[in-house]
Amino acid sequence: MNKPYINIGIVTAKEILFTLNGVYRSTNGETLTGKCHASFSAGGGISLNGKEWNELELIPDGNCCSFTLHDVTIGISYHWERHEEQTFTGRLRLITDSENVIAINSLPVEDYLVSVISSEMSATSSLEFLKSHAVISRSWLLAQINRKNKECGCKCATMKKNEDENCVIRWYDREDHILFDVCADDHCQRYQGITRASNPSVTKAVKDTEGMVLMYDNEICDARFSKCCGGVSETFGTCWEDKDYPYLQPVMDNEGNSPLPDLSIEENADLWIRNNPKAFCNTHDKNVLKQILNNYDQETTDFYRWKVEYSQKEISELIHRKTGFDIGEIIDLTAVERGKSGRICRLKITGTLKTVVIGKELEIRRALSESHLFSSAFVVDKTGISNGIPSGFIITGAGWGHGVGLCQIGAAVMGEKGYTYDKILLHYYKNAEIRKLY
Predict the structure, then answer these.
(1) DSSP 323-337
(2) Count of H-run helices and E-run strands, the chain
(3) CA pseudo-torsion sign 324, 325, 329, 333
(4) pTM value > 0.70
(5) CB of 240 within 8 A of CB of 346?
(6) Cross-strand partners of 56
(7) In angstroms, what CA-CA distances link 157 with 111, 134, 240?
(8) What is the DSSP code string of 52-115?
(9) 8 A C-beta contact, residue 355 and residue 168
(10) Phi, psi angle pair for 14, to nearest 5°
(11) Angstrom distance (rounded) from CA 260 to CA 232
(12) How far apart, in Å, are the Cα atoms of 252 and each of 24, 182, 310?
């Protein structure tokens, strides 16, 4: 297998401001450098520095060239959303989607991975953790490309099934990415070019694992990962379509042989979430977390176990606005179905006007927060009940993210404890094997 290239969608907007740091050549031989302004034109093309283009590819004329995109949104719709100026190497493609200009960065997969590892966590993490993340990031990426090729470019978007008008089950996967392979934000993998400075350890981690992926039954594994599993990892079908992958099964995030609790049972989940069991990802070691988390991720300190409180007015208005259902005052929030990590994939919301059921986990997290709850592994306490209606709700939860596959904080702690990258990988991806493709 030849070393692959990747096309990453960075910015989609009516107009894009960028700076070419060096000389770039267009496909028709024209040279450009310095500050540029690209906008969607009335004719449906791209207006760039006074000229019209249907699409444009800018190729660096030398190895020291880079380009800077201004006003890049990161953490889209999450609690850490913000705007940054970001710099990239490789080629810059400008295309349209009939409404906007899209800036796409094209470069070798291995170069992309150096940035992803630095963008996903601090580059000062242990080498073994960095190597494990290089393998899963490469695996996830190549699995998505293979899937896209098999689907002949068909859109694999938000999926929704309405069992009745008061039951909406929705999940989100690789959506809206027909014009490029992956996006640059948390929806896919954080990619911020050379903005996040890498160090020799990151470069070494990628080079030492070059071409290595996780495989199962001769297929590249869809190697999902999240920030913190909360003590037990989750199954694929709890979060996305109803599929079962043998390598994405629930795993106790510790080094013992303690039995795996069945957290799909409500009583077990309630006990688990309200307690503080030992786990690799149960850490408050600032030195470790500083190695794992970028500056904006460090704003989140209570991720293993957390609480959110709402008044009746706050939660009823929030649910109405986020779901579109006018439920009235909220009487109860009840887990109808949980996954193996305790994450709720079907939540019944009982109100004074109607009762609805929503899912899966990300839809639940969006419905109960201005951005996203840390996870859908939570239990609910009602306060100040009068005439059957609570005056408030306390949501106590576990973990950060969907919890499927590798737990980044847990894996980083494993690296600090001396586990090698292969041991880390096979802890989270049972039944998988590590194979070198190129």
Answers:
(1) H-----SEEEEEEEE
(2) 10, 24
(3) negative
(4) yes
(5) no
(6) 94
(7) 27, 26, 11
(8) EES-EEEEESSTT-EEEEEEEEESTTSTT-EEEEEEE-SEEEEEE-SSSEEEEEEEEHHHHHHH
(9) no
(10) -65, -35
(11) 8
(12) 51, 30, 31
The rounded distance, in Å, linking the Cα atoms of 384 and 391 is 5
- End-to-end alpha carbon distance in the chain: 5
Contact partners, residue 234, CB within 8 Å, separation at least 6: 250, 339, 340, 341, 343, 402, 403, 404
What whole-number distance in Å separates Cα of residue 420 and Cα of residue 423?
5
Q: Which residue has the tokens 């400008």?
A: 94
Instruction: Note whether 401 and 120 are within 8 A (CB).
Output: no
Contact between 225 and 117 (Cβ < 8 Å): no
What residues contact residue 274 under an 8 Å CB cut-off, 6+ apart? 379, 396
Give the residue from 38, 164, 153, 143 showing the smallest Cα distance to 101: 38
Separation of alpha carbons 121 and 98, rounded Å = 35
DSSP character string of 8-21 = EEEEEESEEEEEEE
Question: Strand, helix or coil at 166?
Answer: coil
Instruction: Give the residue from 279, 229, 228 showing the smallest Cα distance to 249.
Output: 229
Q: Is the peptide bond before 155 cis (omega within 30 degrees of 0)?
A: no
Rounded CA separation 282/240 (Å): 26
Q: Which strands, in side-by-side order, build the sheet including 433-436? A: 219-220, 212-216, 433-436
Tens of each residue's pLDDT in the chain, 438 residues = 788 999 999 999 999 999 999 999 998 889 999 999 999 998 899 999 888 999 999 999 988 999 999 988 765 555 556 678 899 999 999 999 989 999 999 999 999 999 888 876 676 789 999 999 999 999 999 998 888 777 644 444 566 666 678 999 999 876 557 889 988 877 787 888 887 666 788 899 999 999 999 999 999 999 999 999 999 999 999 999 999 999 999 999 999 878 999 999 999 999 999 999 999 999 998 878 877 776 655 556 689 999 999 999 999 999 999 999 999 999 999 999 999 999 999 999 999 999 999 999 999 999 999 988 999 999 999 999 999 999 999 999 999 999 999 999 999 999 999 999 999 999 999 999 999 999
Tokens describing residue 176: 């809206």
Structure token pair of residue 332: 């109860």
